[in-house]
Write a structure and sequence with these properties.
Blueprint (H helix, E strand, L loop, with lengths): L6 E4 L5 H13 L4 E4 L9 H9 L5 E4 L2 E2 L5 H14 L4 E6 L5 H4 L7 H15 L5 E4 L4 E5 L15 E4 L3 H10 L2 E2 L9 H15 L10 E8 L3 H18 L1 H7 L3 H10 L6 H7 L5 H7 L1 E3 L1 H13 L4 E8 L1 H8 L2
Parallel strand pairs: 1-2, 1-12, 2-3, 3-5, 4-5, 5-8, 8-9, 10-11, 10-12
Antiparallel strand pairs: 6-7
Helix pairs in contact: 3-5, 5-6, 6-7, 8-10
């Protein structure tokens, strides 16, 4: 079973220097991109992205995803201009709408998230032209600003703007204004059926075809020759995510009563002991339903299901032996 496009996803499971080695390993084995997460208050995305870009030559480097609330769009554009100087035409800007309760806990009121996302994407896109930008929005207010290039190429930059959308209204906005979507993980393949319909609504509104919208998808991938070991590797992550990210639990259609029980065990920040205690509440069939977990043959087949449902490039999050996972999907 050949999968034409494949990418690597790194979060906080590996030390950054190990991530740098994995980025090189993935590049050598034909992976097209390495994406760095920025989720809980764990690890900033930009520093590892720069590290990955510095030790590779061809592989693209994406943010998967930064949020649109805590960085001014001028700073986002300047950051990705800098990454593009380091790795020309290899930087991908993935932006998401964040989530509660984390956002509210740091003082962010996520009012009108669609409007806020539209304004940030529109201003970043204009800034990448290197032309002056004035924009008076509800959330974004900039006056006669322009990216300044002291050292580097004084020309428009090719930085794709991707939206990490989970809800269907954000999906429609993505189809209308973004270069692509970063489809979420911890959802079953059939989640993509509805996602593609809403992406198309947005694309139709803008007079675009679906072929113009790249659709990479995060997929949790736990590979081991022993199936139980592989499933337990993914179960640990899922248990924490179900407790702490309500939008993931909702999208994956996890049993609400069982979710309450998990949330009653796991606090913030979660301890390893709490996660271990709650893990038995996440059954094997659910793990395999929303992740690619199992033997190499099983995970390849599961990833293909996401592609068959509209994903263009799986972005694989390795749990367990990362090099085994990369080898499983190597060109």
């Amino acid at each position: 079973m050949a999968i034409d496009r494949v990418a690597l996803y790194l979060q906080d499971k590996h030390p950054i220097r190990e991530g740098m080695e994995l980025a090189k390993y993935a590049e050598d084995r034909g992976f097209e991109a390495v994406w760095q997460a920025e989720s809980r208050l764990v690890r900033d995305a930009i520093v590892p992205m720069a590290a990955f870009a510095a030790v590779t030559d061809k592989i693209k480097v994406g943010s998967g995803v930064i949020n649109n609330w805590t960085r001014n769009p001028a700073i986002i554009a300047a950051t990705f201009l800098t990454l593009d100087d380091l790795a020309p035409n290899r930087a991908i800007c993935g932006i998401g709408a964040w989530w509660d309760p984390l956002a509210s806990q740091v003082g962010i009121n996520r009012a009108r998230p669609l409007r806020a996302m539209r304004e940030v994407v529109e201003v970043c896109r204009q800034l990448f032209t290197l032309e002056p930008v004035t924009y008076e929005g509800e959330f974004v207010h900039v006056k006669d600003i322009q990216l300044d290039v002291v050292h580097g190429r004084r020309e428009p930059r090719n930085v794709p703007l991707m939206i990490g959308a989970t809800g269907m209204k954000m999906m429609e906005l993505t189809g209308e204004i973004a270069d692509g979507i970063v489809l979420n993980y911890c959802v079953p393949p059939e989640y993509n059926d509805e996602a593609m319909k809403h992406l198309k609504v947005g694309a139709d509104k803008a007079g675009r075809s679906m072929d113009e919208i790249d659709r990479p998808q995060l997929v949790v991938c736990s590979v081991h020759e022993d199936r139980k070991t592989a499933l337990d590797g993914a179960r640990e992550l899922l248990t924490q995510y179900l407790a702490q990210q309500p939008h993931i639990a909702k999208a994956s259609k996890f049993d609400p009563e069982r979710l309450k029980e998990i949330q009653s065990i796991i606090g913030w920040p979660a301890t390893k002991e709490q996660i271990q205690k709650a893990m038995p509440l996440v059954p094997d069939d659910f793990v395999q339903h929303i992740t690619a977990s199992g033997t190499p043959e099983e995970v390849r087949a599961k990833v293909q299901e996401y592609i068959d449902k509209g994903a263009t490039c799986p972005i694989l999050y390795p749990l367990g032996d990362a090099k085994l996972m990369i080898d499983t999907f190597a060109k």
